[in-house]
Q: What sequence folds into this?
């Protein structure tokens, strides 16, 4: 599959050079790439799910290491892995469903009942592998090879009991079925990513009421669409836009809002603290949402969150579900932050005279630092509006359990106990 | 709350009835017989085999208390002619296998958590059971599990009553293990009320005895075990023997998982310890020790502040009141506190912080010892707080050694994260609404000087930290926020 390799390498290069802007675009491209990987993957007759998982994992690891700060890549990889496991499970259960049917037509044997129960135990185990490890599933939780084992077991019993029913064609049909199911599900995922803005904007009416004043910082496409949807429903509201130095994306947002007839006020970032007491709500977008409910957001939003908390103004974050990352931020200021070019602050050429001066070793005395992101802890966030509804930050673990499998949290090949 | 009010009422009889005959160890107390420290004292006296059993085993593990002290405790108990050795239940040898014995033998391993020892003991109950149906097996397990939970209570009651009341023996031999703790209390008090008021003292002792520490993790672990192992969904179609072996398999697996839980927790918490950080640790938790050990072994640079458990300053030479005996010089040189000397009041300050610092020093980790009062003073240097847990409750809060709540409050006010490391078998179906809402667990506290009679001593051994002061919980189920705990518990009991 040299084609595959070329595609992957291209994408990795784009990621490394930060050519792709925005989580949504990155997520979409990643999903499409993984879809191609799945469809072109040769599957062995047994253990198809494992083979798929391995393939996706391999590609996923490369993508993630290309741009570790762009968490959407990892999210989508984990989503696809979860999809594979889920589809595999449903294929298994539909099989055992067939199994039970066929068993009943045979003679009543304790043997048969035994064999019935074991595949269902296997299916049960597979289902519990999907769920995050919980007290409930403590004894049924098996390691990764469980998926393989259960596959083998069900195959084995297929052969044993229903000799007359199993022929290679059925197994082949099953393998194709798995692939098709997975690709279908990944298509759904891509659709979801595309339509996340619409789904979020549908909720705008519930949160933006008449004559409200809303504060935002920088420019987020989700926020823009949110405002537009509210405007379309004839809500009258005003928006304070903080410009969001050093990129000044707030200026762009202000122009767009005015073009849609929303009354806008443009302020500097430094003025946020003095004006936040006069707004009803702060509404911002996020770069990523972490498992504890904290968010990674463009620089400056931590200050805004603190200001909002001080004046008891609700701090609302809008983010698509593809931004939900199942990892915990143990050192977000360092490991999840990227540095942008200092030229955004200080043009090359200006102050270059100062750069020349240095200490004895020649190191310059003036450093220019331009971090891209801020971490806002979950206590400061009041509401997270996603395409599946508005939730408390402490609810994130539930969404994670729905969309991700615990086995995929650590994608690097580290040895675990 | 019945137990508190009872004590107020019954404190009076104790003042009048300082019945030295009933408390042989009182001879060993050189100092006060005043009723003020009666609470602390009586705890140290007869219930020696009971309350101290918990601390006794821990002491044996920790080696902090001198063997002299232990020998005295044994001797004190042994002085009662009819007394049975505290290690064996009074149950006649009709039962060749005693779960208590097994539990105790497992518990002797210092690295094993109490709940894991209980689980292993229950597994061996299955192995040695002669039941022929699953229901019978379940009943046996339930009996064993109850007796484990009440084992401490049983011991003390046995020790107490066999001396004096044959009728109690009667009561005890008829299916004692099936009686719950509350029932036992009721029966015991009714038993006592049949006797003359001259024996008020026994009722008082019962009340005090019911104050005994019931270890939360032990109870939770037993409950979980019962639940997992006897879920018979996959056992319906099998004959009994294979069902039994399947049960045994599950039981062993549960024991395995619980045992490995510590390693998993250590792995999960590695990312949160970064180079150059300062960690504040409270008390001695083997799980936290494992976490720090793993971090030290992977060459991370960090330092640890140990708090917890010193009632007085480390400098014991302050205590001039006691007349040490001949062996005192050795003790003084080894800097073992004078309270451990025979002839001194029997309370020991809980030296858990000290023990942890010893362990860490062995790993070459820079350690600093703090007394509990110095936590706020040092909190600004601290990057994170790490504690273990006696139990994790439904609200997501934790029950841990006294002082944890304090530290969590200070950490929260200074925006420092508080991390809890707890295995999943510590999740308990409790929902304390305030500090007094738990089964009281008392420990002997000694101030080193005689205390006037009017002065009460707060002797509780643990406190409850509400979930809003905790940042994350590291469990073998993964890293959890406190709000996930109640979700887990619901799923479990679904």
A:
């Amino acid at each position: 599959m040299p084609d595959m390799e070329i595609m992957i390498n291209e994408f990795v290069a784009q990621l490394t050079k930060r050519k792709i802007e925005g989580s949504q675009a990155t997520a979409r491209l990643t999903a499409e790439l993984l879809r191609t990987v799945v469809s072109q993957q040769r599957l062995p007759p047994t253990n198809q799910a494992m083979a798929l998982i391995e393939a996706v994992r391999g590609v996923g690891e490369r993508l993630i290491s290309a741009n570790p700060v762009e968490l959407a890549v990892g999210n989508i990889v984990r989503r696809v892995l979860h999809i594979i496991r889920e589809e595999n499970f449903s294929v298994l259960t539909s099989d055992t469903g067939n199994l039970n049917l066929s068993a009943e037509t045979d003679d009543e044997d304790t043997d048969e009942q035994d064999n019935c129960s074991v595949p269902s135990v296997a299916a049960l185990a597979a289902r519990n592998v999907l769920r995050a490890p919980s007290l409930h599933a403590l004894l049924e939780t098996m390691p990764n090879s469980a998926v393989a084992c259960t596959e083998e077991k069900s195959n084995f019993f297929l052969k044993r009991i229903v000799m007359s029913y199993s022929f290679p064609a059925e197994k082949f049909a099953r393998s194709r079925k798995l692939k098709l199911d997975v690709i279908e599900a990944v298509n759904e995922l891509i659709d979801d990513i595309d339509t996340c803005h619409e789904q979020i904007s549908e909720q705008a009416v519930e949160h933006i009421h008449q004559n409200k004043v809303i504060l935002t910082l920088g420019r987020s496409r989700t926020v823009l669409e949110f405002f537009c949807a509210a405007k379309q429903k004839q809500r009258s509201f005003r928006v304070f836009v903080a410009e969001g130095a050093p990129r000044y994306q707030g200026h762009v947002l202000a122009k767009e809002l005015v073009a849609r007839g929303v009354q806008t006020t443009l302020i500097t970032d430094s003025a946020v603290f003095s004006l936040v007491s006069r707004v009803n709500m702060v509404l911002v977008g996020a770069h990523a949402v972490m498992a504890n409910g904290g968010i990674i957001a463009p620089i400056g939003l931590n200050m805004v969150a603190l200001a909002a908390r001080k004046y008891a103004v609700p701090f609302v974050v809008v983010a698509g579900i593809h931004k939900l990352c199942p990892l915990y931020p143990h050192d977000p200021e360092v490991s999840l932050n990227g540095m942008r070019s200092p030229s955004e602050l200080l043009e090359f050429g200006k102050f270059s005279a100062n750069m020349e001066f240095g200490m004895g070793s020649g190191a310059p005395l003036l450093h220019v630092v331009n971090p891209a992101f801020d971490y806002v802890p979950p206590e400061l966030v009041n509401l997270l509006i996603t395409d599946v509804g508005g939730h408390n930050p402490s609810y994130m673990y539930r969404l994670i359990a729905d969309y991700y499998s615990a086995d995929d949290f650590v994608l690097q090949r580290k040895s675990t106990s | 709350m019945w137990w508190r009010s009872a004590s107020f009422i019954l404190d009076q009889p104790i003042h009048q009835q300082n019945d030295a005959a009933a408390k042989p160890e009182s001879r060993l107390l050189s100092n006060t017989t005043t009723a003020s420290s009666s609470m602390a004292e009586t705890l140290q006296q007869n219930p020696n085999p009971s309350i101290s059993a918990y601390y006794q085993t821990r002491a044996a593990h920790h080696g902090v208390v001198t063997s002299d002290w232990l020998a005295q405790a044994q001797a004190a108990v042994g002085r009662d002619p009819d007394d049975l050795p505290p290690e064996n239940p009074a149950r006649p040898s009709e039962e060749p296998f005693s779960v208590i014995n097994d539990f105790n033998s497992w518990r002797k391993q210092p690295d094993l958590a109490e709940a894991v020892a209980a689980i292993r003991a229950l597994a061996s109950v299955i192995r040695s059971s002669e039941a022929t149906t699953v229901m019978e097996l379940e009943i046996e397990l339930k009996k064993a599990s109850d007796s484990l939970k009440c084992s401490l209570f049983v011991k003390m009651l046995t020790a107490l009553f066999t001396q004096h009341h044959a009728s109690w023996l009667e009561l005890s031999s008829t299916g004692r293990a099936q009686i719950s703790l509350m029932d036992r209390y009721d029966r015991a008090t009714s038993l006592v009320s049949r006797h003359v008021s001259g024996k008020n003292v026994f009722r008082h002792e019962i009340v005090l005895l019911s104050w005994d520490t019931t270890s939360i993790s032990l109870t939770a672990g037993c409950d979980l075990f019962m639940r997992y192992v006897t879920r018979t969904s996959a056992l319906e179609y099998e004959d009994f023997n294979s069902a039994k072996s399947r049960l045994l398999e599950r039981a062993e697996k549960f024991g395995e998982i619980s045992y490995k839980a510590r390693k998993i927790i250590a792995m999960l918490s590695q990312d949160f310890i970064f180079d150059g950080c300062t960690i504040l640790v409270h008390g001695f938790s083997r799980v936290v020790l494992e976490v720090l050990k793993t971090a030290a072994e992977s060459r991370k640079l960090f330092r640890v502040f140990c708090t917890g458990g010193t009632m007085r300053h480390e400098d014991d030479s302050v205590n001039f009141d006691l007349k040490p005996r001949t062996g005192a010089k050795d003790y003084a040189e080894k800097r073992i506190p004078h309270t451990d000397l025979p002839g001194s009041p029997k309370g020991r300050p809980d030296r858990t912080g000290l023990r942890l610092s010893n362990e860490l020093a062995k790993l070459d980790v820079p350690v600093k010892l703090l007394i509990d009062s110095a936590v706020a003073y040092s909190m600004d240097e601290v990057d994170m707080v790490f504690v273990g847990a006696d139990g994790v409750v439904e609200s997501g809060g934790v029950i841990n050694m006294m002082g944890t709540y304090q530290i969590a409050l200070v950490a929260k006010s200074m925006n420092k994260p508080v991390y809890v490391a707890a295995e999943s078998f510590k999740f308990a179906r409790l929902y304390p609404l305030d500090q007094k809402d738990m089964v009281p667990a008392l420990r002997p506290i000694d101030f080193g000087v005689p205390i006037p009679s009017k002065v009460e001593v707060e002797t509780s051994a643990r406190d409850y930290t509400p979930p809003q002061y905790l940042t994350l919980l590291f469990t073998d189920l993964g890293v959890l926020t406190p709000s996930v705990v109640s979700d887990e518990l619901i799923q479990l009991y679904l």
Residues 34 and 56 of chain A are 7 Å apart (CA to CA).
